[in-house]
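Running co-folding for adenosine-5'-triphosphate.
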Amino acid sequence: MRRLKAKNSRRQQRLSESQEIELLEQWIEARKPDSGTNPLANPTPPPTAEAGRAADGGFSPYAGCKLFRQLPISWKTKDGLAPKYKEMSDIQRASLPHSLCGRDILGAAKTGSGKTLAFIIPVVEKLYRARWVPEDGVGSIIISPTKELAGQLFEELKIVGKHHSLSAGLLIGGRKDVDAEKERVNSLNILVCTPGRLLQHMNETPNFDCSQLQVLVLDEADRMLDKKFKGELDAIISQLPKRRQTLLFSATQTKSVKDLARLSLKDPEYISVHAESVTATPERLKQVAMEVPLDQKLNMLWSFIRSHLNSKMLVFLSSCKQVKFVYEAFKKLRPGISLKCLHGRMKQSTRMAIYLDFCEMTSVLFSTDVASRGLDFPAVDWVIQVDCPEDIAAYIHRVGRTARFMSEGKSVLFLTPSERVMLKKLQSAEPKIPIQLRKSFAFRFLWTLPSFYYSNFGGQTVLMQAMDHENKMEFEDERGPLPKEEKEHDIHITASALKLLEGNNDSRNIIYEEAEDDIFVPKKSSLQLEKNEPITLSTRILRKGKLKINVHRPLGTRLKYDEDGNQIAPLAAFADTENADGVLEPDKVKERYEKLREEKKLWDKEDKLLLQQRLREKRTKEKMKIKRWEEEEEDRAHSDQEEGEKDAPNRSEIHFESESDDGEPRKKKKIKGFDADAISLAEQEELALKLLSSMHS
Ligand SMILES: Nc1ncnc2c1ncn2[C@@H]1O[C@H](COP(=O)(O)OP(=O)(O)OP(=O)(O)O)[C@@H](O)[C@H]1O
C-alpha cells in the first residue's frame, strides 16, 4: 500500500515525466520490430512501414537508426549518454530495439564491442517507464563474475543513470560495514553484484526482497552459467520471480538448451552481430604464437618486457602462486617499467587500487584469469599469454583486453612444444582466430633469471605445478620430462646476447632487425616519434659478470683511492702499523683491524636503520595510497547519498565482505613467503639483512 502511495505521489509530482513515459510506451508499442529481425541486415530507413520489410518478411522500423537519440529512450538517459556516446555500436543497434520492448535477449558480440550499454540502457529505461522509486525495492539485478567487472559496470551505470532518480548499489566483497549496508540494501533499485555477495544477502539480510524484480542481467553469461558458478546461480535464480525480462550477454555465448532452461527464458531473441564475421576476435587485433620451451618461458617474458618498455602489457599466468612469483622476481630485477599484479587472493582494496592504476599507467600487469573477462583497461598494447588458456573461449576473452572498440592491439601466446595442439584448435575454430606461429628466435635471451629466485621462492616448482595442474587443456602429446637440475647460480648474460650487445646495447634494435614483420617492433615514445631519434633504453642494461680475483697479482700492488678520487700508495693505510724500519708490528695491525671492525659495525647499524626507515616509509606510502582510495570511495558514496536525499531517496554504493567470486578457488591459507602485500616487504627486509651480513662476514 505504501509503495503504491509513493508511486502515485511521484506520478503526481512529475507530470511532464508522465507524459514522456506515455509517449515512450506508445512509441515502443507502435514500432515493435518483428521477432528475429536485425536492423543491421536492412540498413536503409523505411520511408513507410511496409518498405521496412526485409526479404525474409521480418520488419524492423529501426533499420537505419544509428544514433542513440533516435531510440525511444528517456531524455534523462539521452542526456547521460550524450557527452560520451552518440553513435551506437552494432550490438547496440541490433539488440536495443528488442530489449526496449521487453524481450529476453541472448546477445553475442566480439570483445570490446559495447555490450555493456546494450544491457544497461534497457535496465534503466524499464524502471524509469515503470516509475520505479527507492521504496519499490529491487527492480533489477546485474550479475558479473568478478568484483572488478562489477565495479566497471557500476561506473557505466552511473553514466547512463546520472540524471535519473533511481538508486543503485555495488554489492561486492572487501568491505567490513556489512551491517550498515544490510539496512540500505532494501532501498536499492538496481543491484550490480557478484553472485557470492548477492547470495549472502539473500541468505542473511532480513526482509531482503526481490519479488518485484523486473530485469535480470547476466554479463559474461556463458561464464555465469558454467559449473564454477552453478550452485550459486541456481540458488539465486530459485529466489527470483519467473515473470521478468532476462538479458544474457557475452563474447562467447552459450546456446546450451539446458543452460537456458535454468533461466526460464521466454522466446529469447538470439542476437549475434558478428556471426557472419570471418573472425571471432576483433579485426584490429594482431595475434601470434611462439613456441617456447617451458624452462625458457620466463626468460622469453623478461626479454619481451625489456624490449617493449613503452608499451602497456597485460600478462596472463595460470595461478595466483605463479603471478606472485613472477611479479616478485621481476620486481627485484627492475626491468625499467612499472610492474603490478592482480589475483583473487589479494585484499579487495588493493585489487581495486591496482585495477585503477593499470587503467591509467603504462605498465605491466601480471594477472590470473581474474582480469580476462570484461575489463575495459584503456589502451593495452600487448596481451601476453605465458600459459596456455584453458579453452578457446578463455583465449578469446584474454586477447579481448586489447584492440577494444575500434582501437588496435597485439597479442602473443607462448606455447611449449606439447601445447602446439592448442594452436591447431585455435586455427580451426569457427569463426576463425587468425593466429600465426612465429619463430621465437626473434628475441634473444638477454638475461637468464638467477637461481636465487628459483631456490628461494621455489620458482621452477611454481611454474611446473601451475602448468601441470592448472591447465585443464587436454594435450595430444605427452609433456616432455620436466628439467630437474637446478638453474645456474650466477646472474649472467648468455654468450650470444653478449655478442649482440658488443656492437649495440639496445635490445629493442636487435629485435627490430630480426623480426619477420613489424608486429614485434617496439612502440616508440611520442617524443622519439616526433624527433625521429633512435630508440634508447630508459634504463641501462647492466652487464653483470663474475667477479674474478687475480691470484697472481704481486702483494701490495692493488691501487686505492681516497674519497676525492686521488690515487694513494698501495698499503698506505697500513703505514701506521709499521715501525721505523718498515717492519709490521703485530699489535698495531691487530689494533687497526679491531678499529676497522668497529667502524664496520657502526656502518652496519646505520645501514640497517636506514633500510628499516626506508621500508617503513614505503609501507606507510602504500597504506596511505589505499586509505586515500578508500576515503575517495566513501566520499563518493556519501555525496551520492546526500544527493539522493536531496532529490529523492537515491543513488548509493555498497560493498559486502565475502570471497570467491573470481572464478578462482577460495583458499584462505597463505603460502609461506608469498603474501602479496606484507610478505614481499618482509622478504625484502630479509633479503637486505642477508646481503648486509654476507658483505660483512
Ligand atoms: N556507442 C559507443 N560509442 C563509443 N564508445 C563506445 C560505445 N559503446 C561502448 N563504447 C566503449 O567501448 C569500450 C568497450 O565497451 P564494453 O566494455 O561494453 O565492451 P564489451 O563488448 O562488453 O567487451 P567484453 O566482451 O570484453 O566485455 C568501452 O570503453 C566503452 O566505453
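Result summary
The mean pLDDT is 76.
The pocket of adenosine-5'-triphosphate is lined by residues 85, 87-89, 92, 109, 111-117, 251, 374, 376, 400, 404-405 (CB under 6 Å).
Job closed.
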